Task: structure prediction
Amino acid sequence: MILVIGGYFQGKKEYVKNKFQLSDDDFSDDLYSSKPVMTAFECWKGDLGEKELKLLLAKKAVISLESGCKVLSLNEEERLFEEKINSALQYLAANANSVVRLYCGIPMALKGEI
Result:
């Protein structure tokens, strides 16, 4: 599995489409979908237990907004949600074959190969 992170509109989806020769139909924002790529992981509101993390690792790619280096929310519920997502991203990064960060459409390998 490849974890692709970056800011808004940095070319994450296009990068994955080209890398794996996929179409728009191969992307879903539903973790339980059988489609090979999960998009908008940072918005996932469901469970993120061991079962869900294994489902993510079985996908070809997971696409997420880059997190961190931002002002934390004053709302406790939002902070707990961000902590849950960030912990899951750390787990995915540690267990992914590669981690790629996109900036202005330029891929940078943080782990593994591009």
